[in-house]
Amino acid sequence: MCSSIRASTIDFYDLSNKNVKESYSVDLNRKRGNVLIVNVQVFTNSYVPTREGSEIDVLHLRNLFEDLKFTVVVKGNFNADDMCSAIKEFANRKDHTYSFVFILSRGTKSQGVDGKWEILCSDDKAVAIDEVMTILSNKEVNHLSGKPRCIVVNICSEITCDRSAANPSSNPASNLVPNVCGSPSIRESNISVDDMTLVILIAPGCASSHDKKLGSILFRAFVRFSN
């Protein structure tokens, strides 16, 4: 299985006014950049289903970016602390040009009035999407300034299981750990997120379905495969 890569034209970079100075430069003769893929499949809480088939998404993404001459690092089944540490380690690399971070997991709702959706980790604790953006922000890692970063989060944004089932007397929300990375949120600190794109693969309140043998629809569309 391999990905089919087509070269783009100069028009791809600016279709509106042909101002190519606004695009990022690409050197076709050297490594393009770095990719971090974090795939959480298994959870401590036995009532949270294993994400069977997500390894197919990882394979598709890895094949695509390695064909594009990116350096790809794949991590799996992180608890909340380890996920934050891995993203920080990735952000602090000195060889960034173009950077992609893919996080594949389940989602859960945060405490508080805003009820933001967060990334569920293997230890049943949550990492806020804002926190991931903070770690990769210009303020936290100033050598990333001017370098494009894309964060892609593939999580369900609906509660698909009762996280309190193992302990009926507990409040499900009390198990969550907002801002577990130890950084202030994007909204609180007004951190610059220039050159950063955030992609969340599902609308609020919806499940992110995937085929156990083929992977998710979006990642299949992300990469065109041929045998």
Low-confidence stretches: 159-180
The biggest beta sheet is recorded as: 5 strands, parallel
- Looking at how many chains there are and whether they match, the oligomeric state comes to single chain
Give the mean pLDDT: 74
User: What gyration radius follows from the Cα positions, in whole Å?
Assistant: 18 Å
Strand order of the largest sheet: 3-2-4-8-9
SSE string, helix = H, strand = E? EEHEHEEEEHEHEEEHE
Report helical residue fraction: 10-25%
Note the gap between the termini.
5 Å
What is the approximate shape? globular
Class by SSE composition: alpha/beta
Number of helices: 5
Model description:
A hairpin with a 7-residue loop joins β5 and β6. The protein has helices spanning 54-67, 80-91, 129-135, 186-189, 217-222, and strands at residues 2-3, 33-39, 70-76, 98-104, 106-109, 117-120, 126-128, 149-154, 196-200, 210-211, 215-216, 225-226. The strands form four sheets. The protein has a five-stranded parallel β-sheet with strand order 3-2-4-8-9, with helices on both faces. Strands 5-6-7 form a three-stranded antiparallel β-sheet. It has 227 residues and is α/β, with parallel strands linked by helices.
